[in-house]
Amino acid sequence: MREENPLKEKPKLPGLPRSLPEGRSIDPFIVMDVMAEANARQANGEDIIHMEVGQPATPAPRAARERARNALETERLGYTEALGMPALRELIASYVKERYGASVGPERVVVTAGSSAGFVLAFLAILASGDSLGLPSPGYPCYRQILKALGLSPRLIETSAEGRWMPSAGDVDRLAAEDAAGILLASPNNPTGTMVVGDRLAEIAAACRRKGLWLISDEIYHGLEYDAPAETALAHSDEVIVVNSFSKYFSMTGWRIGWLVVPEALVRPIERLAQNLYISPPTISQIAALGAFDGIDELEAIKGNYARNRAMLLEELPRAGLSDILPADGAFYLYADVSRFTDDSEAFAKAMLRDVGVAVTPGIDFDPDRGQSYVRLCYSGPEASMREAAVRIGAWLKKQ
Ligand SMILES: Cc1ncc(COP(=O)(O)O)c(C=O)c1O
Questions:
Q1: Is the CB of 153 under 6 A from ligand 1?
Q2: Of 66, 77, 349, 391, which one has the greatest count of Cβ atoms within 10 A?
Q3: Is 145 in the pocket of ligand 1 (CB under 6 A)?
Q4: 79 vs 90, 258, 276, 282, 398, CA distance in Å?
Q5: Tally of domains in the chain
Q6: Cα-to-centroid distance, 116 and ligand 1 (Å)
Q7: Mean pLDDT, consecutive 10-residue segments, the chain of 400 residues?
Q8: What CATH number is given to the structural domain containing 111?
Q9: Same domain? 223 vs 361
Q10: Is 106 domain-assigned?
Q11: Closest Cα partner for 248 from 190, 325, 203?
Q12: Could you tell me if residue 1 is inside a domain?
Protein backbone atom coordinates (compact mmCIF):
# COMPACT_ATOMS: atom_id res chain seq x y z
CA MET A 1 0.00 0.00 0.00
CA ARG A 2 2.81 2.38 0.88
CA GLU A 3 4.62 3.23 -2.29
CA GLU A 4 7.32 5.79 -2.58
CA ASN A 5 6.20 8.62 -4.77
CA PRO A 6 7.51 7.75 -8.24
CA LEU A 7 7.93 11.40 -9.10
CA LYS A 8 10.21 11.93 -6.10
CA GLU A 9 12.23 8.77 -6.59
CA LYS A 10 12.82 8.89 -10.30
CA PRO A 11 12.69 12.45 -11.51
CA LYS A 12 13.52 11.39 -15.05
CA LEU A 13 10.65 9.14 -16.01
CA PRO A 14 11.05 7.29 -19.26
CA GLY A 15 8.86 8.61 -22.04
CA LEU A 16 8.88 12.22 -20.81
CA PRO A 17 10.92 14.98 -22.44
CA ARG A 18 12.10 16.53 -19.16
CA SER A 19 12.34 15.60 -15.51
CA LEU A 20 9.36 16.55 -13.35
CA PRO A 21 9.61 19.30 -10.71
CA GLU A 22 10.67 17.49 -7.54
CA GLY A 23 9.28 19.93 -5.00
CA ARG A 24 5.82 19.49 -6.46
CA SER A 25 5.69 15.73 -5.92
CA ILE A 26 3.18 14.78 -3.25
CA ASP A 27 2.27 11.60 -1.40
CA PRO A 28 -0.77 9.56 -2.37
CA PHE A 29 -4.04 10.03 -0.47
CA ILE A 30 -3.72 6.57 1.05
CA VAL A 31 -7.42 6.15 1.77
CA MET A 32 -8.11 6.29 -1.97
CA ASP A 33 -5.49 3.59 -2.55
CA VAL A 34 -7.08 1.39 0.13
CA MET A 35 -10.51 1.94 -1.45
CA ALA A 36 -9.19 0.96 -4.88
CA GLU A 37 -7.77 -2.26 -3.45
CA ALA A 38 -10.96 -3.01 -1.50
CA ASN A 39 -13.05 -2.39 -4.64
CA ALA A 40 -10.81 -4.67 -6.71
CA ARG A 41 -11.21 -7.46 -4.13
CA GLN A 42 -14.97 -6.91 -4.10
CA ALA A 43 -15.08 -7.11 -7.90
CA ASN A 44 -13.28 -10.44 -7.52
CA GLY A 45 -16.14 -11.75 -5.43
CA GLU A 46 -14.69 -11.15 -1.95
CA ASP A 47 -17.08 -10.09 0.81
CA ILE A 48 -15.69 -6.67 1.74
CA ILE A 49 -16.89 -4.30 4.48
CA HIS A 50 -15.94 -0.72 3.70
CA MET A 51 -14.77 1.28 6.70
CA GLU A 52 -11.99 3.08 4.86
CA VAL A 53 -13.46 5.97 2.90
CA GLY A 54 -15.26 8.73 4.77
CA GLN A 55 -18.48 8.92 2.90
CA PRO A 56 -22.15 8.27 3.58
CA ALA A 57 -23.54 4.96 2.33
CA THR A 58 -26.70 6.82 1.31
CA PRO A 59 -27.54 8.85 -1.83
CA ALA A 60 -28.28 12.58 -1.94
CA PRO A 61 -31.59 13.66 -0.36
CA ARG A 62 -34.61 12.86 -2.54
CA ALA A 63 -35.39 16.53 -3.27
CA ALA A 64 -31.82 17.06 -4.51
CA ARG A 65 -32.05 14.09 -6.87
CA GLU A 66 -35.44 15.22 -8.16
CA ARG A 67 -34.13 18.69 -8.91
CA ALA A 68 -31.17 17.23 -10.79
CA ARG A 69 -33.37 14.79 -12.76
CA ASN A 70 -35.71 17.56 -13.76
CA ALA A 71 -32.86 19.89 -14.73
CA LEU A 72 -31.34 17.21 -16.96
CA GLU A 73 -34.55 17.11 -18.96
CA THR A 74 -35.39 20.78 -19.04
CA GLU A 75 -32.30 22.96 -18.66
CA ARG A 76 -29.31 23.83 -20.74
CA LEU A 77 -26.84 23.33 -17.90
CA GLY A 78 -24.34 25.89 -19.12
CA TYR A 79 -21.75 27.66 -17.01
CA THR A 80 -22.98 29.61 -13.99
CA GLU A 81 -21.40 32.61 -12.26
CA ALA A 82 -17.90 31.69 -11.03
CA LEU A 83 -18.95 32.31 -7.42
CA GLY A 84 -21.98 30.05 -7.87
CA MET A 85 -25.67 30.52 -8.65
CA PRO A 86 -27.07 33.52 -6.76
CA ALA A 87 -30.04 31.44 -5.54
CA LEU A 88 -27.71 28.85 -4.01
CA ARG A 89 -25.51 31.48 -2.37
CA GLU A 90 -28.69 32.97 -0.86
CA LEU A 91 -29.83 29.60 0.43
CA ILE A 92 -26.43 28.82 1.96
CA ALA A 93 -26.41 32.23 3.69
CA SER A 94 -29.89 31.50 5.12
CA TYR A 95 -28.74 28.06 6.29
CA VAL A 96 -25.77 29.64 8.09
CA LYS A 97 -28.11 32.12 9.75
CA GLU A 98 -30.60 29.45 10.76
CA ARG A 99 -28.03 26.98 12.01
CA TYR A 100 -25.69 29.29 13.91
CA GLY A 101 -27.51 32.61 14.13
CA ALA A 102 -24.56 34.17 12.30
CA SER A 103 -25.48 36.92 9.86
CA VAL A 104 -23.55 36.33 6.67
CA GLY A 105 -24.59 38.06 3.48
CA PRO A 106 -24.83 35.87 0.36
CA GLU A 107 -22.10 38.02 -1.20
CA ARG A 108 -19.63 36.37 1.21
CA VAL A 109 -20.58 32.84 0.10
CA VAL A 110 -18.51 31.18 -2.61
CA VAL A 111 -19.81 27.94 -4.11
CA THR A 112 -17.00 25.50 -4.92
CA ALA A 113 -16.48 22.11 -6.55
CA GLY A 114 -16.41 20.34 -3.19
CA SER A 115 -14.48 21.74 -0.28
CA SER A 116 -11.40 20.35 -2.06
CA ALA A 117 -11.59 23.15 -4.62
CA GLY A 118 -12.36 25.56 -1.78
CA PHE A 119 -8.99 24.82 -0.19
CA VAL A 120 -7.14 25.52 -3.44
CA LEU A 121 -8.98 28.83 -3.88
CA ALA A 122 -8.46 29.90 -0.27
CA PHE A 123 -4.78 28.92 -0.17
CA LEU A 124 -4.03 30.64 -3.46
CA ALA A 125 -5.90 33.78 -2.42
CA ILE A 126 -4.19 34.31 0.94
CA LEU A 127 -0.78 32.61 0.81
CA ALA A 128 2.32 33.64 -1.08
CA SER A 129 4.76 31.14 -2.49
CA GLY A 130 6.75 29.58 0.38
CA ASP A 131 4.29 30.67 3.13
CA SER A 132 3.50 28.14 5.80
CA LEU A 133 0.21 27.16 7.40
CA GLY A 134 -0.22 25.37 10.74
CA LEU A 135 -2.04 22.04 10.52
CA PRO A 136 -3.02 20.10 13.63
CA SER A 137 -1.81 16.51 13.36
CA PRO A 138 -3.43 14.03 13.05
CA GLY A 139 -5.54 15.73 10.42
CA TYR A 140 -6.99 15.43 6.94
CA PRO A 141 -4.03 14.48 4.69
CA CYS A 142 -5.02 16.52 1.64
CA TYR A 143 -4.42 19.80 3.49
CA ARG A 144 -0.70 19.16 3.54
CA GLN A 145 -0.59 17.64 0.06
CA ILE A 146 -2.53 20.54 -1.52
CA LEU A 147 -0.22 23.03 0.21
CA LYS A 148 2.86 21.19 -1.07
CA ALA A 149 1.47 20.95 -4.59
CA LEU A 150 1.00 24.72 -4.54
CA GLY A 151 4.57 25.38 -3.37
CA LEU A 152 3.40 26.21 0.18
CA SER A 153 4.59 24.68 3.46
CA PRO A 154 2.50 22.64 5.88
CA ARG A 155 3.65 23.10 9.47
CA LEU A 156 2.36 20.19 11.54
CA ILE A 157 1.21 20.87 15.10
CA GLU A 158 1.31 17.75 17.23
CA THR A 159 -1.92 17.34 19.20
CA SER A 160 -2.73 14.69 21.81
CA ALA A 161 -5.60 12.42 22.78
CA GLU A 162 -5.63 14.16 26.20
CA GLY A 163 -6.28 17.49 24.43
CA ARG A 164 -8.96 15.80 22.28
CA TRP A 165 -6.55 16.09 19.32
CA MET A 166 -7.20 19.83 19.09
CA PRO A 167 -4.79 22.76 18.87
CA SER A 168 -4.73 25.62 21.38
CA ALA A 169 -4.18 29.38 21.45
CA GLY A 170 -0.62 28.59 22.57
CA ASP A 171 -0.08 26.79 19.26
CA VAL A 172 -1.19 29.95 17.46
CA ASP A 173 1.39 31.97 19.43
CA ARG A 174 4.10 29.47 18.51
CA LEU A 175 3.07 29.59 14.83
CA ALA A 176 3.23 33.39 14.91
CA ALA A 177 6.70 33.25 16.44
CA GLU A 178 7.75 31.00 13.57
CA ASP A 179 6.25 33.41 11.07
CA ALA A 180 3.51 31.08 9.83
CA ALA A 181 0.66 32.72 7.91
CA GLY A 182 -2.18 31.00 9.73
CA ILE A 183 -3.77 27.84 11.08
CA LEU A 184 -6.34 25.47 9.61
CA LEU A 185 -8.45 23.43 11.98
CA ALA A 186 -11.32 21.01 11.57
CA SER A 187 -13.86 20.44 14.32
CA PRO A 188 -15.20 17.73 14.26
CA ASN A 189 -11.83 16.49 13.11
CA ASN A 190 -10.95 13.82 10.61
CA PRO A 191 -9.65 11.19 11.57
CA THR A 192 -10.46 11.50 15.27
CA GLY A 193 -14.05 12.79 15.25
CA THR A 194 -13.15 15.03 18.22
CA MET A 195 -14.17 18.69 18.58
CA VAL A 196 -12.90 21.88 20.16
CA VAL A 197 -14.73 22.27 23.44
CA GLY A 198 -15.29 25.08 25.94
CA ASP A 199 -13.71 28.39 25.02
CA ARG A 200 -10.96 26.87 22.90
CA LEU A 201 -12.24 28.09 19.52
CA ALA A 202 -12.85 31.61 20.86
CA GLU A 203 -9.31 31.64 22.28
CA ILE A 204 -7.81 30.41 19.01
CA ALA A 205 -9.75 33.03 17.04
CA ALA A 206 -8.64 35.76 19.48
CA ALA A 207 -5.00 34.63 19.25
CA CYS A 208 -5.18 34.68 15.45
CA ARG A 209 -6.60 38.18 15.50
CA ARG A 210 -3.98 39.37 18.02
CA LYS A 211 -1.11 37.93 16.01
CA GLY A 212 -2.46 38.71 12.56
CA LEU A 213 -2.77 35.09 11.48
CA TRP A 214 -5.41 33.59 9.20
CA LEU A 215 -7.88 31.20 10.75
CA ILE A 216 -9.30 28.67 8.30
CA SER A 217 -12.07 26.56 9.81
CA ASP A 218 -12.99 23.34 8.01
CA GLU A 219 -16.61 22.79 9.08
CA ILE A 220 -17.35 19.94 6.69
CA TYR A 221 -18.49 17.64 9.52
CA HIS A 222 -20.88 20.16 11.04
CA GLY A 223 -24.33 18.63 11.36
CA LEU A 224 -22.74 15.33 12.35
CA GLU A 225 -22.38 15.84 16.10
CA TYR A 226 -23.69 13.42 18.72
CA ASP A 227 -23.74 15.53 21.86
CA ALA A 228 -23.17 19.29 21.75
CA PRO A 229 -23.50 21.06 18.38
CA ALA A 230 -20.27 22.17 16.70
CA GLU A 231 -19.39 25.83 16.95
CA THR A 232 -18.69 27.89 13.86
CA ALA A 233 -15.62 30.13 13.68
CA LEU A 234 -17.98 32.77 12.26
CA ALA A 235 -19.30 33.22 15.81
CA HIS A 236 -15.94 34.69 16.79
CA SER A 237 -14.83 36.74 13.81
CA ASP A 238 -15.80 37.94 10.35
CA GLU A 239 -12.17 37.68 9.26
CA VAL A 240 -12.08 33.89 9.20
CA ILE A 241 -12.38 31.60 6.20
CA VAL A 242 -14.96 28.87 6.69
CA VAL A 243 -14.85 25.82 4.46
CA ASN A 244 -17.90 23.59 4.12
CA SER A 245 -19.40 21.05 1.75
CA PHE A 246 -22.48 19.12 0.74
CA SER A 247 -20.38 15.93 0.85
CA LYS A 248 -20.83 14.68 4.40
CA TYR A 249 -23.95 15.79 6.33
CA PHE A 250 -25.81 16.29 3.04
CA SER A 251 -24.68 12.89 1.73
CA MET A 252 -23.49 14.20 -1.66
CA THR A 253 -19.80 13.24 -1.99
CA GLY A 254 -19.79 12.44 -5.71
CA TRP A 255 -21.65 15.59 -6.67
CA ARG A 256 -18.52 17.59 -5.85
CA ILE A 257 -20.18 20.64 -4.41
CA GLY A 258 -19.25 22.75 -1.40
CA TRP A 259 -18.86 26.34 -0.24
CA LEU A 260 -16.68 28.89 1.46
CA VAL A 261 -17.67 31.82 3.63
CA VAL A 262 -14.97 34.46 3.31
CA PRO A 263 -14.35 38.04 4.47
CA GLU A 264 -15.82 40.55 2.06
CA ALA A 265 -12.41 41.77 0.90
CA LEU A 266 -11.51 38.25 -0.25
CA VAL A 267 -14.56 37.74 -2.47
CA ARG A 268 -13.20 39.44 -5.58
CA PRO A 269 -9.68 37.89 -5.38
CA ILE A 270 -11.31 34.46 -5.01
CA GLU A 271 -13.75 35.19 -7.83
CA ARG A 272 -10.84 35.96 -10.16
CA LEU A 273 -9.11 32.71 -9.20
CA ALA A 274 -12.33 30.69 -9.59
CA GLN A 275 -13.03 32.19 -13.03
CA ASN A 276 -9.60 31.22 -14.27
CA LEU A 277 -9.14 27.88 -12.53
CA TYR A 278 -12.61 26.33 -12.78
CA ILE A 279 -14.91 28.78 -14.64
CA SER A 280 -17.81 27.69 -12.41
CA PRO A 281 -18.81 24.86 -10.06
CA PRO A 282 -20.74 21.98 -11.73
CA THR A 283 -24.17 23.33 -12.66
CA ILE A 284 -26.15 20.12 -12.18
CA SER A 285 -24.71 19.77 -8.69
CA GLN A 286 -25.56 23.36 -7.79
CA ILE A 287 -29.14 22.70 -8.85
CA ALA A 288 -29.22 19.50 -6.80
CA ALA A 289 -27.80 21.39 -3.82
CA LEU A 290 -30.75 23.81 -3.98
CA GLY A 291 -32.93 20.83 -3.08
CA ALA A 292 -30.59 19.45 -0.41
CA PHE A 293 -31.90 21.85 2.23
CA ASP A 294 -35.38 20.34 1.80
CA GLY A 295 -34.01 16.96 2.85
CA ILE A 296 -33.14 17.76 6.46
CA ASP A 297 -35.57 15.13 7.87
CA GLU A 298 -33.98 12.43 5.72
CA LEU A 299 -30.51 13.61 6.68
CA GLU A 300 -31.36 13.58 10.38
CA ALA A 301 -32.57 9.99 10.00
CA ILE A 302 -29.25 9.07 8.36
CA LYS A 303 -27.43 10.76 11.21
CA GLY A 304 -29.50 8.62 13.59
CA ASN A 305 -27.99 5.54 11.89
CA TYR A 306 -24.49 6.92 12.41
CA ALA A 307 -25.29 7.56 16.07
CA ARG A 308 -26.43 3.96 16.54
CA ASN A 309 -23.35 2.61 14.75
CA ARG A 310 -21.11 4.81 16.88
CA ALA A 311 -22.71 3.65 20.15
CA MET A 312 -22.59 0.00 19.06
CA LEU A 313 -18.93 0.15 17.96
CA LEU A 314 -17.84 2.00 21.09
CA GLU A 315 -19.17 -1.03 22.95
CA GLU A 316 -18.13 -3.80 20.56
CA LEU A 317 -14.66 -2.68 19.43
CA PRO A 318 -13.17 -2.65 22.95
CA ARG A 319 -14.57 -6.17 23.41
CA ALA A 320 -12.98 -7.09 20.09
CA GLY A 321 -9.59 -5.85 21.35
CA LEU A 322 -9.49 -2.23 20.17
CA SER A 323 -9.80 -0.64 23.58
CA ASP A 324 -7.99 2.63 23.07
CA ILE A 325 -10.55 4.86 21.32
CA LEU A 326 -11.85 8.26 22.38
CA PRO A 327 -15.65 8.49 22.17
CA ALA A 328 -15.52 10.90 19.24
CA ASP A 329 -17.89 13.88 19.38
CA GLY A 330 -18.81 14.01 15.71
CA ALA A 331 -18.18 13.03 12.06
CA PHE A 332 -18.30 9.26 11.45
CA TYR A 333 -14.84 8.14 12.47
CA LEU A 334 -13.14 6.33 15.31
CA TYR A 335 -9.37 6.59 15.63
CA ALA A 336 -8.04 3.49 17.33
CA ASP A 337 -4.62 2.98 18.89
CA VAL A 338 -3.32 -0.36 17.55
CA SER A 339 0.20 -0.12 19.00
CA ARG A 340 -0.48 -3.28 21.06
CA PHE A 341 -0.61 -5.17 17.77
CA THR A 342 1.71 -3.40 15.36
CA ASP A 343 4.17 -0.60 14.67
CA ASP A 344 3.19 -0.61 11.01
CA SER A 345 -0.43 0.47 10.56
CA GLU A 346 -0.23 0.07 6.79
CA ALA A 347 0.80 -3.57 6.98
CA PHE A 348 -1.83 -4.07 9.72
CA ALA A 349 -4.63 -2.57 7.59
CA LYS A 350 -3.51 -4.48 4.54
CA ALA A 351 -3.49 -7.78 6.43
CA MET A 352 -6.94 -7.09 7.92
CA LEU A 353 -8.33 -6.44 4.46
CA ARG A 354 -6.71 -9.56 3.03
CA ASP A 355 -7.63 -11.89 5.92
CA VAL A 356 -11.13 -10.81 6.94
CA GLY A 357 -12.23 -8.33 4.26
CA VAL A 358 -12.54 -5.29 6.53
CA ALA A 359 -11.09 -2.16 4.91
CA VAL A 360 -9.79 0.48 7.34
CA THR A 361 -7.34 3.35 6.81
CA PRO A 362 -3.85 3.33 8.31
CA GLY A 363 -3.18 6.29 10.59
CA ILE A 364 -0.06 7.19 8.62
CA ASP A 365 -2.33 8.93 6.13
CA PHE A 366 -3.32 11.44 8.84
CA ASP A 367 -0.19 11.66 10.96
CA PRO A 368 3.17 11.04 9.29
CA ASP A 369 4.93 10.84 12.68
CA ARG A 370 2.71 8.75 14.96
CA GLY A 371 0.23 7.27 12.51
CA GLN A 372 1.88 3.84 12.39
CA SER A 373 0.20 3.19 15.76
CA TYR A 374 -3.35 4.03 14.66
CA VAL A 375 -6.10 3.08 12.25
CA ARG A 376 -9.21 5.03 11.33
CA LEU A 377 -12.55 3.27 11.09
CA CYS A 378 -15.43 4.95 9.31
CA TYR A 379 -18.84 3.86 10.63
CA SER A 380 -21.10 5.42 7.99
CA GLY A 381 -22.11 2.02 6.57
CA PRO A 382 -25.25 -0.04 7.24
CA GLU A 383 -25.60 -1.15 10.87
CA ALA A 384 -25.51 -4.89 10.05
CA SER A 385 -22.20 -4.48 8.19
CA MET A 386 -20.69 -2.43 11.00
CA ARG A 387 -21.72 -5.09 13.53
CA GLU A 388 -20.28 -7.82 11.31
CA ALA A 389 -17.04 -5.83 10.99
CA ALA A 390 -16.64 -5.75 14.78
CA VAL A 391 -17.09 -9.54 14.89
CA ARG A 392 -14.55 -10.11 12.10
CA ILE A 393 -12.03 -7.71 13.65
CA GLY A 394 -12.40 -9.42 17.05
CA ALA A 395 -11.79 -12.89 15.62
CA TRP A 396 -8.84 -11.62 13.59
CA LEU A 397 -7.18 -9.73 16.46
CA LYS A 398 -7.24 -12.90 18.59
CA LYS A 399 -4.88 -14.45 16.06
CA GLN A 400 -2.43 -11.51 15.94
C1 LIG B 1 -11.88 17.14 6.90
C2 LIG B 1 -12.21 17.06 5.45
N3 LIG B 1 -12.19 18.19 4.71
C4 LIG B 1 -12.46 18.16 3.40
C5 LIG B 1 -12.76 16.97 2.74
C6 LIG B 1 -13.01 17.02 1.25
O7 LIG B 1 -14.35 16.87 0.97
P8 LIG B 1 -15.08 17.37 -0.38
O9 LIG B 1 -14.06 17.82 -1.34
O10 LIG B 1 -15.84 16.17 -0.84
O11 LIG B 1 -15.98 18.48 0.07
C12 LIG B 1 -12.80 15.79 3.46
C13 LIG B 1 -13.10 14.51 2.78
O14 LIG B 1 -13.01 13.45 3.34
C15 LIG B 1 -12.51 15.84 4.85
O16 LIG B 1 -12.53 14.74 5.60
A1: no
A2: 349
A3: no
A4: 18, 17, 13, 8, 56
A5: 2
A6: 6
A7: 50 79 79 90 96 95 98 97 98 97 96 98 96 97 95 95 94 97 98 94 97 98 95 96 98 98 98 98 98 97 97 95 89 96 95 96 94 96 96 95
A8: 3.40.640.10
A9: no
A10: yes
A11: 190
A12: no
Dist. CA 359–CA 374, nearest whole Å: 14
From the alpha carbon of 253, which atom of ligand 1 is closest? 10
Residues 126 and 47 in one domain: no
**Same domain for 224 and 271:** yes
Evaluate: CB of 361 within 6 angstroms of ligand 1. no
How many angstroms separate the CA atoms of 2 and 19, rounded? 23
Angle value at C-alpha 397, between 226 and 342, nearest 5 degrees: 90
Which residues, in sequence order, are bridge partners of residue 361?
A: 376
Q: Is 186 in the pocket of ligand 1 (CB under 6 A)?
A: yes
For the CA atoms of the chain, what is the radius of gyration? 21
Number of residues that make up the chain: 400
Residue-number span of the structural domain to which 16 is assigned? 6-59+297-398
Residues 209 and 287 in one domain: yes
DSSP string across 117-167: HHHHHHHHHH--TT-EEEEEES--HHHHHHHHHTT-EEEEEE--TTTTT--
Domain shared by 31 and 55, yes or no: yes
Evaluate if pTM is beyond 0.90: yes
Scored b (16 or more CB within 10 A) or e, 246-258 reads bbbbbbbbebbbb
Kindly give the distance from the C-alpha atom of residue 213 to the centroid of ligand 1, in angstroms, as a whole number. 23
The verdict on 110 and 163 lying in the same domain is yes
- Compute the distance from residue 115 Cα to the ligand 1 centre, in Å: 6
**Cβ–ligand 1 contact at 218 (below 6 Å):** yes
Residues 214 and 341 in one domain: no
